[in-house]
Write a structure and sequence with these properties.
This protein is an alpha/beta fold. It is 32% helix and 22% strand.
């Protein structure tokens, strides 16, 4: 007998909450070594129009919210996370910004009531850990955004090494290139970059898109294809990083 989706999503949330209870104390000390692309995505957002209200899904220890609060001094920012331990780490980091930055303990399963309405949804290395739940989160993001509102995502994409995919699965990360195609079919892409880390041990992506159509498009899992693009070589922002822009991953 199959488990109802909502039940499975909440079970995933409980598992991740337990996981981060142990990882929160060392999160900021360790994640610089493999959560690449976070600063690059925030710079990309900074190059666009200033947002009125940013919602970060999976805000963790508040690193991204603090950066955006400094970059956009007139914006409101809301973070959502299911881990009390991670939010406890975020509170002292965000306290300096006062009431314009707040965090909520919750899974992101449906749009939130925000004032002013949110015009940017940010998701950093969270969707790949929502298994199941990522499609539900993307549906909520599409419903959260107004027409032409932006979604910005950085996350793991894939790895050619089965042992690495198994190791990441033990840490609740899915690495089978399922997220970027869904984002590209659910939002109007503005930025799509696929990069690789540590000589190709894994790939990760940066994506910025806009909500389009009538109240956005329903996230749909289609074939794992990408539009053609131009290869662009560059240096990464962290040790072990390389960059490729476009559709093809080259050795």
């Amino acid at each position: 007998m199959s488990v109802p989706l909502d039940t499975a999503v909440r079970a995933t949330g409980t598992t991740l909450e337990r996981y981060y209870r142990w990882h929160a104390p060392v999160y900021d000390l360790t994640r610089w070594a493999f959560l690449f692309g976070r600063s690059a995505l925030l710079r990309r957002l900074g190059a666009g129009p200033a947002p009125r209200h940013v919602l970060e899904v999976g805000c963790g220890t508040g690193r991204n919210l603090a950066t955006l609060a400094r970059r956009f001094p007139n914006a409101r920012l809301t973070g959502v996370d299911l881990s009390d331990a991670m939010l406890a780490r975020a509170e002292p980091r965000l306290h300096v910004f006062g009431s314009r930055v707040r965090c909520l303990r919750s899974q992101f399963e449906a749009p939130l009531s925000l004032d002013p309405p949110c015009d940017v949804v940010l998701v950093s290395y969270a969707l790949s850990m929502m298994n199941p739940g990522y499609a539900q989160a993307l549906r909520a993001a599409a419903a959260q955004l107004p027409l032409k509102g932006r979604i910005a995502v950085v996350d793991f994409a894939a790895s050619p090494w089965p042992w690495f995919r198994r190791w990441m699965a033990r840490n609740h990360v899915r690495l089978d290139d399922h997220l970027l195609p869904m984002l590209q079919t659910s939002f109007d892409p503005e930025v799509t970059e696929v990069r690789h880390a540590y000589g190709g041990a894994w790939q990760y992506f940066l994506f910025i898109g806009r909500a389009g159509g009538d109240e956005g498009r329903e996230p749909t899992a289609l074939s794992l294809t990408r539009p053609s693009g131009t290869l662009s070589r560059g240096t990464g922002e962290g040790r072990g990083e390389g960059r490729f822009v476009g559709s093809t991953l080259h050795p």
